[in-house]
Specification:
- It is a single chain.
- The chain contains 10 helices and no strands.
- It is mostly helical.
- It has one domain.
- The protein starts with a helix and ends with a helix.
- Keywords: Membrane, Transmembrane, Transmembrane helix.
């Protein structure tokens, strides 16, 4: 009876379970990827700079917030969902700011993974979070249109899967070209899951799902292009030189 009442009051709740599961699945994937990376000895929490820890806390907070927000939507607690949404707007700026700062400091302190160039890493850590933030802001702006809102939010989550994927693929073997190709391919496959859901429930792919795929492609092309763009390469090398 409670489920039926919720579905009547909030028609979107009929397939909200899909988006809730997507949020939980992606959050668990990110935690697993970073967790196994640390357990394998590829990172040292005790020697990492404080801003790296702050960046990690901000990202974990974001993952938790997205999961909670989807759970609230599924339960019909829209009032609390909306209140927490404004908290999310503030948090996304923190995530973006710390992401860019951490990326820049990694270059300055020569902590960039050896299979990435400084220019690639600078482009990825800056434009990656900027496009992520733009997706979230667009989702909040479309909050009154649930179908757009939740797909854009899911698309933003898909964008930040990149660093987690990078910790699971054999980057030293794949190299500086195939590594980002494999990451973008994985992300597009996740978008494909949402597209298949769209076709199942709507008969066609939602425009917001198409935008999510476009965001992945644009970010990939932008980062790859800037990584070999001479003025940008000079900028990154200048940061590395101090």
């Amino acid at each position: 009876m409670a489920t039926a009442a919720t579905s009547t009051a909030y028609p979107y709740s009929r397939d909200q379970r899909f988006f809730t599961r997507m949020a939980i699945g992606m959050a668990l994937f990110v935690v697993f990827a970073f967790g196994q990376w640390a357990l394998r000895g590829f990172s040292s929490p005790t020697t990492a700079p404080v801003w790296v820890h702050l960046h990690g806390i901000a990202m974990l907070s974001w993952l938790a917030l997205v999961v909670v927000q989807n759970q609230l939507a599924a339960s019909g607690n829209i009032a609390l969902h909306r209140k927490l949404g404004w908290t999310g707007l503030g948090l996304v700026f923190v995530v973006a700011g710390l992401g860019m700062f951490t990326g820049r400091m990694a270059i300055e302190l020569h902590r960039v993974p050896p299979f990435f160039s400084n220019a690639y890493f600078l482009a990825l850590t800056h434009f990656g979070v900027l496009i992520f933030a733009a997706m979230v802001i667009a989702a909040i702006a479309m909050r009154r249109n649930t179908q757009w809102h939740r797909r854009l939010m899911t698309g933003a989550m898909i964008l930040i899967l990149e660093p987690a994927i990078g910790r699971l693929v054999p980057a030293p073997i794949l190299g500086p070209v195939l590594t980002p190709v494999s990451e973008a391919t994985f992300q597009l496959c996740v978008v494909g899951v949402m597209a298949m859901h769209d076709v199942k429930v709507r008969g066609t792919v939602h425009p917001a799902t198409r935008i999510s795929a476009l965001a992945v492609i644009v970010l990939f092309a932008l980062v790859m292009g800037l990584s070999v763009f001479p003025p940008f390469v000079s900028l990154a090398e200048g940061i590395a030189a101090g």
